[in-house]
Amino acid sequence: MFPLRDTQPSYSKPVVTVVLIVINILIFLFEFSLDPYSQNAFIFTWGLVPDQFHLANVFTSMFLHGGWLHVLGNMWFLWIFGDNIEDILGHGKYLLFYLACGVAAGMSQVILSPGSRVPMVGASGAIAGVMGAYMVKFPQSRIHTLIFYIFITTIEVPAWVMLIYWFFIQLVSGVGSIGTSQISQGGTAFFAHIGGFIAGIGLIFLMRPKERYWKRKDLTW
Questions:
Q1: How does the average pLDDT of the chain come out, rounded?
Q2: Residue 187: what pLDDT?
Q3: What is the CB-side half-sphere exposure of residue 193 using CA atoms within 13 A?
């Protein structure tokens, strides 16, 4: 399932979400401009390699991507779900939330794949945290979703259905990857997605939303 748009209104401008999208795309364009050798060196230098762990790379790896589909897919998910979480937290708190989810995601992958020599890159762990928070705060929001099953069509589903389905796929895929060679393994960092999603659920309870969010919520009940 691929989300096309949601029905949850946002009452403020998603400044941080837009800035994050722009930064990610600009960095990817820089990556794309490099020759293959320099590109690989850049990713190994700034990506998160569990076997050669550096704390700074937990942060820098969040802004690197492995290809056009990777970056555009991640940025689309961030655009769909990020504006509403930024709206209820406020710009500063939302940025801290996003980075904290990214750290939790990266560390989850490092802890569960400590010997991997494959660099982990991408914003998907941090975005998974945003999705976890969205499921908690807006479970009944409707998500217009593109599905591929024999034929292509669109359906509208509650946010909690789509996001639990997404999490289930990550969990099954992550468990299925256990035991795979950490030297040759590439592809998706499923445990980062799982860790980020769970972190987002926990952090949204700890980081109290803005007062005006609660006032809006009370008016709708």
A1: 87
A2: 59
A3: 19
Q: Is the predicted pLDDT of residue 112 greater than 90, yes or no?
A: no
d(CA 44, CA 39): 9
Please check the confidence at residue 219 and state whether its pLDDT lies above 60: no
Using DSSP's 3-state secondary structure scheme, residue 120 falls into strand
User: Exposed/middle/buried for 1, CB within 10 Å: 0-12, 13-18, 19+?
Assistant: middle
Tell me: the pLDDT tens digits for 152-195?
888 899 999 999 999 998 888 766 655 544 433 455 778 899 99
Global confidence as pTM: 0.88
CATH number of residue 163's parent domain: 1.20.1540.10
Find out whether 163 and 2 touch, Cβ atoms under 8 Å: no
The Cα–Cα gap between 221 and 217 comes to 7
Residues 6+ apart with CB under 8 A from 71: 24, 25, 28, 65
**Domain coverage including residue 11:** 2-220
Domains: count for the chain: 1
In whole angstroms, how far apart are CA 121 and each of 6, 22, 68, 132? 27, 17, 13, 20
